[in-house]
Design goal:
transmembrane helix, about 50% helix, DUF247_pln, 3-stranded mixed β-sheet, transmembrane, membrane
Length: about 300
């Protein structure tokens, strides 16, 4: 039936509906006459859950080659669903395919004293300021060409973020991934860190609208306000420690740039006086008029104290 497959995908991605992967491998192996079969269920799961992917960034051949070389140089291995990765269930396999990374370096510690995990609180989980505030500080947003939606970079006042596709299955996907990271002690909190980072960036529909204008967010929901509400509700009652986030170093760099007053002043000058050609002409005319007035005053005073002979 039309439309039923999408509902089945959303049901099968739910944490409470997961079956151990070794059980599914065993059942499929018996059916195919090969009880020792490994990895086929994981491969089928990735193909089945592909419509739930939070990105569909089209990459050119050169972009794919650059991405592959980057993965080889920065990580010891990439995710291979056909190999025995010790996946727990289909949700775990799908999460690994989203991250597709080997071991990551431990994040730097923001607070020197030991920090305990706490239920998510806006004051305690604040990684970064919202889009509107960062724009006022002169930080620019640009789309980064990669299909790894979580791979965010910051350099020279530019926050480069991959494209994120939000559809009616995104909320269910992120909720179950966050729940899995909360329940499994040996699991990293990379998805939770990304969602909280986005929650910090997005406070209103204006923030969503600007990210959409930059090509960073594409959504199929009714309005930008629904997207903002989605991120603002995803991490309620989630246990999270900002010190244990892969985005902590990046957030620290962004906040350092944000707190530099000179950047805010330059951004304010560009926004108020260089936002359009007419504002630039008015600014230049005002500067020229000020200089002429200064010169006239100077020569009037100079002529008064040193009259011509």
């Amino acid at each position: 039936m039309r439309g039923s497959m999408h509902s089945i995908q959303r049901d099968m991605i739910m944490l409470e509906n997961q079956l151990p992967l070794f059980v599914l491998d065993g059942l499929l192996g018996i059916q195919l006459g090969n009880p020792e079969l490994k990895g086929l269920v994981a491969n089928l799961a990735l193909r089945f859950f592909d419509p739930l992917m939070p990105t569909d960034e089209p990459l050119t051949k050169s972009d794919r080659n650059k991405l592959a070389s980057s993965l080889r140089s920065t990580h010891s291995h990439t995710f291979d669903p056909l190999s025995d990765q010790g996946g727990l269930h289909c949700l775990d396999v799908f999460r690994r395919s989203l991250l597709r990374t080997g071991p990551q370096p431990a994040p730097r510690i923001w607070i020197k004293r030991r920090s305990n995990n706490r239920v998510a609180d806006k004051r305690r989980q604040q990684l970064i300021h919202c889009v509107t505030e960062l724009k006022e500080a002169g930080i620019k947003f640009k789309k980064r060409k990669t299909d790894r939606f979580w791979d965010i970079k910051f350099k020279d006042g530019i926050l480069r973020m991959p494209r994120l596709l939000i559809h009616d299955g995104t909320k269910s996907l992120f909720l179950n991934l966050i729940a899995f990271e909360q329940c499994h002690l040996d699991c990293s909190n990379d998805i939770t860190s990304y969602v909280i980072f986005m929650d910090n960036l997005i406070n209103s529909q204006a923030d969503v609208g600007y990210l959409h204008y930059c090509g960073i967010i594409e959504h199929w929901l009714g309005s930008d306000a629904e997207v903002a509400d989605l991120f603002n509700r995803l991490c309620q009652e989630v246990v999270f420690d900002i010190n244990n986030s892969y985005l902590s170093p990046l957030s620290e760099d962004v906040n350092r740039y944000y707190n530099h007053r000179w950047n805010t002043w330059c951004a304010s000058l560009r926004h108020n006086y260089f936002s359009n050609p007419w504002a630039i002409i008015s600014f230049v005319a005002a500067v020229v008029l000020l200089l002429l007035t200064f010169a006239q005053t100077y020569y009037s005073i100079y002529g008064y104290y040193r009259p011509a002979q």
